[in-house]
């Protein structure tokens, strides 16, 4: 589904940001239209996976099986300046996905579209993956993914329910069934260009530096209790084992970065929340602030991760032209400046999430 956006942007001033007119009516508390995290980056370490020791049939005998070493990171957006992947869990209907990045560096005047997928069409520099390695693609190691490796990444089939032997071998219709998960990566594999950290099977590269993800989707209520979600992970997490040996800790346990863009929780299936996790700890929109789950129609959300301002902005848009091949830095600044629920991730203003852990937020080794 494409939208024509005539007169998409209105000029705020000659020298300042361009204010977009495709944002919804602002709401900064309760049912939110946007949330913005400031002071995102920092200096610290996380436990980078350097090796995974294979088990021996019929049980995992390797101890330890997950080998890590501290990795020091620092700077604006760190560790979210590293390569990221987007993960999606059904029930969800996907219509369009686009990724934009600065053409040269974080201060570039133009952000170009680097990846695109449109429903029932062949993608451009975007591959759908899942964690079903060991059959048609990827690999499998004895164990329950916590001990030893379990399933690696695999190429997702068109129905998002199984693996196929090559990237995007089947056309994806966008219907992500209840409880199924997929994630998106670039078309560059770790075999083509070595990846940071440990990688196995069909491991691939994500999107590094500043980036903007645009999702057009629905989260229909199918009568199940499975909560749909969209979240971003450090690419290293899925390249090792998304639900096992990986770098996704938090606070004193490390933490290579997770951003919950729109996560519905089991205790309220009509609301989605946003939270952020890294070696700094965790914080989020706070109790009572949420995104309304789109059960009855298509919505568009953008997540901008910007090194220049050390901020992350998630906001609902009224529409998006997925044929748009680029946007200027002034437009990006305009989106970053729209009224939002402001959350500082600075030292001294962070909290560990009190929300119950669920599916993608299991305790990791």
TrEMBL record:
GO cellular component: fungal-type cell wall
Pfam family, one: YJL171C_Tos1_N
InterPro entries (alphabetical): YJL171C/Tos1_C (IPR018805), YJL171C/Tos1_N (IPR018807)
Any one GO molecular function term: glucan endo-1,3-beta-D-glucosidase activity
Record's signal peptide: 1-17
Residue stretches making up the Cell wall protein YJL171C/Tos1 N-terminal domain: 34-102
Catalytic activity reported: Hydrolysis of (1->3)-beta-D-glucosidic linkages in (1->3)-beta-D-glucans
Protein keywords: Cell wall biogenesis/degradation, Glycosidase, Hydrolase, Signal
Superkingdom of the source species: Eukaryota
GO biological process, one term: cell wall organization
EC number: 3.2.1.39
Residue span(s) of domain Cell wall protein YJL171C/Tos1 C-terminal: 110-325
Record-linked PANTHER family: PROTEIN TOS1
Family the entry assigns: Belongs to the PGA52 family.
Protein name, per record: glucan endo-1,3-beta-D-glucosidase
Species the sequence originates in: Cristinia sonorae
């Amino acid at each position: 589904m494409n939208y024509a956006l005539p007169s998409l942007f209105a000029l705020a001033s000659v020298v300042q940001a361009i204010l977009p007119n495709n944002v919804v009516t602002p709401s900064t508390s309760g049912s939110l239209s946007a949330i913005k995290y400031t002071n995102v980056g920092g200096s610290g370490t996380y436990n980078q996976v350097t090796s995974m020791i294979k088990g021996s049939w019929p049980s995992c005998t390797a101890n330890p099986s997950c080998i890590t070493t501290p990795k020091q990171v620092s700077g604006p957006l760190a560790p979210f300046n590293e390569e990221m992947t987007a993960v999606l869990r059904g029930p969800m209907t996907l219509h369009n996905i686009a990724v934009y990045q600065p053409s040269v560096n974080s201060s570039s005047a133009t952000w170009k579209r680097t990846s695109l997928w449109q429903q029932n069409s062949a993608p451009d520099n975007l591959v759908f993956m899942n964690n079903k390695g060991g059959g048609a693609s990827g690999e499998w190691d004895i164990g329950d993914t916590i001990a030893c490796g379990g399933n690696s990444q695999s190429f997702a089939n068109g129905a998002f329910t199984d693996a196929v032997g090559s990237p995007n071998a089947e056309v994806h219709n966008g219907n992500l069934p209840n409880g199924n998960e997929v994630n998106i990566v670039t078309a560059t594999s770790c075999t083509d260009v070595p990846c940071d950290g440990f990688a196995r099977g069909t491991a691939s590269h994500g999107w590094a530096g500043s980036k903007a993800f645009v999702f057009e989707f629905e989260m229909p209520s199918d009568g199940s209790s499975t909560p749909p979600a969209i979240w971003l992970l450090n690419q290293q997490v899925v390249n090792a084992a998304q639900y096992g040996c990986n770098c996704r800790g938090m606070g004193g346990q490390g933490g290579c970065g997770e951003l919950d863009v729109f996560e519905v929780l089991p205790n309220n299936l009509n609301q989605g929340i946003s939270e952020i996790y890294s070696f700094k700890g965790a914080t989020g929109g706070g109790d009572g602030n949420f995104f309304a789950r789109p059960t009855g129609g298509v919505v568009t959300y953008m997540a901008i991760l910007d090194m220049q301002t050390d901020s992350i902005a998630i906001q609902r848009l009224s529409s998006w032209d997925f044929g748009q091949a680029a946007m200027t830095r002034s437009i990006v600044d305009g989106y970053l400046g729209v009224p939002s629920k402001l959350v500082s991730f600075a030292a001294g203003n962070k909290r560990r999430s009190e929300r119950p852990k669920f599916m993608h937020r299991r305790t990791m080794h």
